[in-house]
Amino acid sequence: MNYPKIEVVDMHTGGEPLRIITGGYPHVEGKTILDKRRYVRDHLDHLRTFLMFEPRGHKEMYGALLVEPNLPGADLAVLFMHNEGYSTMCGHAVIALARYAVDEGLVSRQEPVTRVGIECPCGLVNVDLDVASGNASFVSVPAFAANRSQKIRLENGRQIVVDVAYGGAFYALVEDKLLGVDVHHDSVQKLTQVASQVTENVKTQVDIVHPESTDLGFLYGTIITDGRLGSGMPSRNICVFADEQVDRSPTGSGVTARMALAHAVGSVGIDETVTFESIVGSKFEAKVVDTTSIGSMPAVQVEVSGKAFYTGRTVFEFEEGDDLGKGFLCR
């Protein structure tokens, strides 16, 4: 396998890392973004582990590969990668990519706000960047409550009720008290273990269907919440996705899914702003800005706001004979 020198720019949004691949990656074939996603999965996955895993990364690393856009209105297109594979949407990443695209001249800078159209595997996401402050807001693809009040049984025989909602990716949403944990006080390790149990059981007990694409129809992870949404206080949650990867940010696509569910049950109205807090205390704001549909499914579009920061620029390379240099994980 070929391991070229690869240039990256590292950023973070709300503490969640993003490694933007800026040079050296082989050409990605495919007409559509989902074709390209399948191509990198089937032919270039060794480069995902090369960049995401140790010794260059870690189990919680997240990446963005820029590819040629196909959709009208898209300034750039992106494939997201993580410790397990390739996701369909990532809010913290599009917030960072908007700032990167403006700073690097990939789009023409407009004062005071520059709009960046980013083609994601889930569809076109428009991001508005306030160029003076660096704050960015994206409007989601149609988001919806997919499977409400689903009863699932855990390994210990206990039955719980979860909701499944889509915000560019599908998440199981469950309040901490139903699981006997506390997202404000319990350890990340404990919360991760419990969330992973929920994910595995939802995958086997609930049918996850996207109305327009089988490529999008899979459970990405579980979000444990404090149940405070709509209370006027920040709502804290932890998102555990892929292979027990923990999001340090409130999770842009997860916040979108939570807002879609909240609107479906009537606890959040149009243009009502809600603040979400992550396990490291970082915050996103979100509001439902429009109602729509996807297929026959009632849906909403959600605006999510946050800010990204730069952390470094690197050229990664591989030295022959370094088997560990191909990528590994200790946990």
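Next protein, fold it too.
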Amino acid sequence: MTADPVDIVGLTRSLVDIDSTTGREGACGRWLADYLRGRGWSVEEQRVDNTRFNVIANATGARVVFSTHFDCVPSFFPSRVDGDRLFGRGSCDAKGILAAQVSASEQLRRDGESRVGLAFVVGEERGSDGARVANAAAGSGARFLINGEPTDSRLGLATRGILRLKLRASGRAAHSSFPELGESAIDKLIDALIELRTIALPSDPVLGQTHYTVGLISGGVAPNVVSPSAEAEIMFRTTSDAAEVRMAVTPLENRVAIEHVLEVPPVKMKVVPGFETGVFPYTTDIPFLQAWGEPLLFGPGSIHVAHTADEWVSIAELEAAAGHYVTLAKALLA
């Protein structure tokens, strides 16, 4: 390893300036793997598909593993610094976090602590395919996973889960001048969505009330045709087992067919004394990294600026986060 401290701002900007929109992480992964090797890490490029790979470092013997993702949502824009703010796609979510974790790991190694590893994954923004593959790479000694997402530098008590359902309505086409000869799928879908508003959904004393968004609607073939088909995709942010939500919406099957698309469970996590805590409505890679040990969630930056057109993170918060990661790791290793 090198004795030089990590330049967190420089590392963040180098990562941000490589477009790693989900599906295009290859170049960023190669740069990151070479950077870590240059600092003395033993690095595995763990293949996820033909062009993309996770970057796993010093996994063998690691008791505490820092993890986050280096893919980003579109659209790419490069880094710039304005005062205390470092702008750029991924600066907040989650390349700045990655840089702070590398800095913390280097500090721990300089302090003589070798039981720390890194697991940086692709694909978090689109289904966590990188995390699913990375789960198989966990060392047998892994005890704790410190996952990084923007939490305003608070430890996560819990995160909500996800349940995506597709509602499909079927009708019968007819000329719109004789609607009685047809059967409107769009009308059925609208009735189902209105009924959904009246359904009581599960709640949890920590995570609160399950809520949902109607994210996509499509249907019909032309303005002058009674619609033969229509569908809507619903994203539930769950606070309980998804089976409870599926049971709650069963009455909708009188109007529409319900297709299961995706499920990610809610997670409750370990905390360490001395840190402010919070509950977060989003989901993370943590449910797919169970083999890496008991999870914690912590990261600088706000989820409110992640994915935005002017995504940014505070440089002071980034630099402080490295120290917080050191504190967390030492507490877990003690």
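About the second fold: The mean pLDDT is 96.
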